[in-house]
Structure formats: structure tokens, C-alpha cells
Amino acid sequence: MTHRRDVLTMMAGVGLAAFTLGLPASAQQAPAGETAPLTEMAIGDPDAPIEIIEYASLTCSHCGTFHNTTYPLLKERYVETGKVRFIIREFPLDPLALGAFMLARCEEDKYWPIIDMLFEKQREWAYVDRPLDALAQMMRQAGFSQEKFKGCLRDEAVHDGIIAVRAEGERRGVNSTPTFFIDGERYTGAMSIEEFERILAPKIGG
Q1: H/E element, 128
Q2: Distance set, CA 130 to CA 124, 134, 136, 147 (Å)
Q3: Is 185 helix (H, G, I), strand (E, B) or coil?
Q4: Is residue 46 part of a domain?
């Protein structure tokens, strides 16, 4: 499958072309056959009255803006207070984002800290001349050896699971990132905390 080779060729030093191109058409379809569902990556009370789902790409600058400015406030005011359950779903816009999500999935107990780190330092790895080397260096800070780094990028089950998550998002009408579903209602763009509060206030009674 072409999109799988794009991720694996990062480790073979084929060059940047494979990682700056958009995902090919084949990557927009769920893998053939049965794909084991990935763990839903959620924080907050499972019984919270409001559910927010974000479809995000780790190389998306607008997603980076949301995660670095709005998300900490949303988490503090709504997630940690039991009002919102927040879910992130992978919607990689390119093979580099796909590989970065695979690395985050490699240790699911560290998923959120890794996601936070990659968004916080996005410009240090996603927008440089040698993004793979920068990403490897970033992951070393998270305790990944070079062998683990390579192994995680070769995990076909995780790869196919992320592609399936993306395909499910497309079936829901997602075509850009970030896209949010707030109790099933769709919103797009790097929304501010004020925009979230205007939407959430009526749902929580003030």
C-alpha cells in the first residue's frame, strides 16, 4: 500500500519528498479487511454531560494554535471540572503527521504528553528541512530509543487503525483540521476559548 510505504521509507532515508506530499487517494480509504479499532483517546469524566471530539493533524498549524492557546483553558475550565469529555481523533494531513501519530500511539499511557509536546514544539520538527531527524530527536526526549522509534513506525496495525479513524472522519464530513463535534454539532477552525464558552454555556445551564 503506497501510504504505508511512505511512512516506512522515512526510516530508509529516501528523502523529504515522501513526507511533504499529501496523503494519496488510497490513504483516504479504510484498509481492506478487518482493522482492529484503536483505543479512543479521551480525557475527562466518561459521564460528563458534554462530549467534544476533535479531528486533528499534528502538522496542522491551526491545530497547533488551538492546542497551545485554547485547549489548556478548555481543559482547566471544562474537562477537569467534569463538564466535558474531550476526545482527539487522528486525521493526518500528510505522511509526517501519520508517522507522528503512530509514535504517540506506540505508548498509549504517554499519548497525551507526547501530543502536547509535539504541538508545543511543532515548528521545531514539522516545519524544518529535515523533519524526520527533528522528530526522532523530539521522541528521544520522550524516552524513545532509535530502535523503538523505527519499530513504532513499522507497526502496521497502528498505521491501519489511524487510517481507519481518518476514513471514519471523512464519512462524517471532515475535510479540514481542526474539526470539532460538540455533542454532535460540527464546527471548524482553531476556535478560541470565548467561542467554546458561547457554545457550551447554554448546554451546561449558564
Answers
A1: none
A2: 10, 6, 10, 19
A3: strand
A4: yes
Place of cell 509536546: 117
pLDDT in tens, 143-175: 999 999 999 999 999 999 999 999 999 999 999
Compute CA distances 194 → 20, 21, 44, whole Å. 34, 35, 20
Is the residue at 27 inside a domain? no
Contacts of 63 (CB under 8 A, 6+ apart): 56, 57, 119, 177, 178, 190
Q: What is the CATH number of the domain that holds 147?
A: 3.40.30.10
Give me the residues paired with residue 88 across strands. 41, 54
Range of the domain at 114: 41-204
Total of domains in the chain: 1
- Predicted pLDDT of residue 35: 59
Residue carrying the nine cell digits 484498509: 31
Instruction: Of 198, 192, 203, give the one whose Cα is nearest residue 65.
Output: 192
Per-residue pLDDT, 87: 98
Residue 22 lies in a domain: no
pLDDT for the residue numbered 7: 57
Find the length of the chain. Answer: 206
Residue listed under C-alpha cell 459521564: 47
Question: pTM, whole model, 2 decimals?
Answer: 0.85
